[in-house]
Amino acid sequence: MRAKYYTVRLFELLITFSASYLAVNSFFHSFIYELKKQLFTDILSNYDISFVLAPFNPEAILPLIISGIVFIITSYVWLFGSRSGILSIYHFNLVLFLPEALSFSKLDWLRLVDTTQWFLTDRTFEINLITALVIMIEYVTLYMTTRFMEIKEVTERRGALREKADRVFVNQSAISVLLLIASFMVVLGASFTVPVIKTQIHQLLQTQQYRYILLGIISSIIVSASIIIYYREHTR
Amino acid sequence: MKKEVLTKTPLRLTVSTLLFIVAGMFLGNMILVYMGLLPVVYILLGLLLSSPKTVEVMNPTSHTNVWVDDVVEIQRKVRVKGGFGHVTLGEELPPYFELVEGSNFKVIWKGLNELEEDFEYKIRCTKRGVYYLEECNWETSHPQDLKSATIGESPIGQTLIVKPHPFNIKRIRQQKTLSKMTMPSEAQIRIGIPTTDFREIRDYGFGDSYRHINWKATARRAIPNKPPKVNDYEMEGTKVVWIFLNTASRMALGTNIRNGFEYAIQAVLGLSNFYLNRNCKVGVSFYNDDRFATYGGYGSVRASEERLGGIMVMPDIASKSMAREEEEPEPVLKSTEDFLIPAMGKRQLYTIDERMLRAELLQSNFSLRQCIVSCRGHIIGSNPLFIIVTMINERRLEALLDGLREMQKYIKRSRMRRPSVLIIHVSGFGVAARSTNEEIAASLLEMEESSILRSLRGYGAMVVHWNPSKQNFTEVLLNQVARR
Q1: A197 touches chain B (CB under 8 A)
Q2: pLDDT tens digit string along A149-193?
Q3: Closest-CA residue in chain A for B31?
Q4: Considering only CA atoms, which of B371, B198, B379, B167 is closest in space to residue B273?
Q5: Interior CA angle at B129 toward B124 and B132, to 5°?
Q6: Is A177 an interface residue toward B (CB < 8 Å)?
């Protein structure tokens, strides 16, 4: 059972580093990275210290530096950080990923105050979606594993045998992995079907005279029904 | 059973991801919307799973009889049906029980199939009594901790009867010794039907049958002007022994498990066993000499008790008793609750065992004299042997003497001049002493007591001083054997 316990921890580690890798990769394709790269080259030339990195191409060395920093931070938090602070890896990855994710915004609010197009990327929507979902899987995995670890510690403190507590932890984690895979498939499926449905609904609504009113009524009914069902379930 | 509600886990996950959905809608960014959607789908799928539905805990044995300090294996069979998730089981142990092996708390995982598992652990019963293991508490949890745990209990109904070890007093068979172990006076009369149970070899006396003369023993011990030796057999008859157990608070001197009262109970059981095996009728009565108000002879023992320091480990009961001392004594008659009428045989032994299991400190409201008076009807004419199991104390000496004076009224002087009152003094100070200094203090207190014990012999009582921490009860009684 101890071996299975370490397998779960290894899975957690794998997900964390995969998410970190994808987030860094995403960062390198964002507009912010381009700015940083420019800034980095300017600093080297302005202060006349480009000889320090003379044997290397500055454009090639910057990704290595950033990747190294991310790897060190992730490893440090993983190895020496407290269990409750492990979610900071996810937050860090999210910060790296958001600049590229924002490139897919349909409403660019920043353009209202400035004409500069801040968020641009050369990668596709699908790659970004996969990255986003892996980061979210990382978040749920870290959150749930932390919770399962707490449960394990509590049961051990209450007098349960370590082997039994480990078994519970492993089974909880296994179910969590299965649920995450299912959720990933559902969301991925939704991402492919939503555009198709959206086009169909759009075509359908084009024929309607008062489509906004119709949409409003349908939405109100769905929201009201959801609230009523929820309260009925919880006051039974 | 508590109803399942959502825990903080789904709430926290939803709230933290709701921001993505809102931001996605605000910016028209579908990636953010899908990011927020993943934990929501995870929670919805997780909520489709349900925690285990029913937990049954079965107990194969309803009654367990054990001795004090015995290790008992508690066995349960657990059956869990329906749902997924882990089940925690816990049994509350009665006080004075020590967990020896395993754990009375267990966590098991319920997978797809119906689960049947054994739940075992070992406990040591450290104090006599009747204990009830009434129910096993359980808790079923959602496999992903998305719903609150369901708490319930399954009835077990196991009774643990923890009996104290009686001190088995064996017959002294060496011919060259003479047992001074006192017997009821009525046993020494020559009338009655002698049984085949050999008791001892003794000097011929007036009224002895010639058939009982042991010629070989007489020849071996042939001394001029000495009577011949006769075989003495147990008589079938109405020998009566009354055992009085003191339930005063000071009897609790010692720890909760090893204290004077517990040893006194073991002594009572041993003595009952001994006399019942010799066809005596044995009656048991409980008294409390705290109920006798006296204020004399306080100083010297008090000073020694101050030196004892931490030995007094049950201050609550002691202070309660001291407070009660100042109240007026209230001798409230509790009918037959305070004594067991003398009877013979195994049935009486069982009754005494049963009564001793439930014996408590301060359970009697009678002083020794009141106690004798209350069962006077059963004493008159039986010329019994009185045995008092107590912890003699200078402050309570007057109460004991008062009781002894009352006993004298029911005792006929025997020809053999054997004492008709046996006082077993359980030295509690020795029991309570844990360190070397405390042992020295206990020895000092015992020395003080010895003068009191000597004074009691003047009342025709045989006093046996017993320090349970150093001496075996049988050894103490064997000291009453003298060589011829």
Answers
A1: no
A2: 999 999 998 888 888 899 999 999 999 999 999 999 999 999 999
A3: A129
A4: B167
A5: 80
A6: no
| Cα–Cα distance for residue pair A197/A195, rounded to 1 Å | 6
Q: In what order do the strands lie in the sheet with B281-287?
A: B339-343, B281-287, B240-246, B385-390, B421-426, B461-466
Q: Which of A135, A144, A160 sits opposite B105 (nearest CB)?
A: A160
B11 touches chain A (CB under 8 A): no
A55 inside 8 A of chain B by CB: no
Residue B97 phi/psi, 5° resolution? -105, 140
d(CA A202, nearest CA chain B) in Å: 17
Contacts of A26 (CB under 8 A, 6+ apart): A96, A97, A99, A100, A101, A123, A128, A131
3-state secondary structure of A158: coil
Where helices occur in chain A by DSSP H, the ranges are 2-28, 31-46, 58-80, 87-101, 110-113, 125-157, 162-206, 211-234
Q: Do B106 and A164 touch (CB under 8 A)?
A: yes
pLDDT in tens, A51-91: 666 566 666 778 888 889 999 998 888 888 787 788 889 99
pTM over 0.90: no
Q: Which residues in chain B are contacts of A190 at CB distance < 8 A?
A: 34, 37
pLDDT, tens only, A197-219: 888 888 877 777 777 788 788 88
One-letter amino acid for residue B406 of the chain = E
* Residue among B50, B53, B40 at smallest CA distance from B79: B53
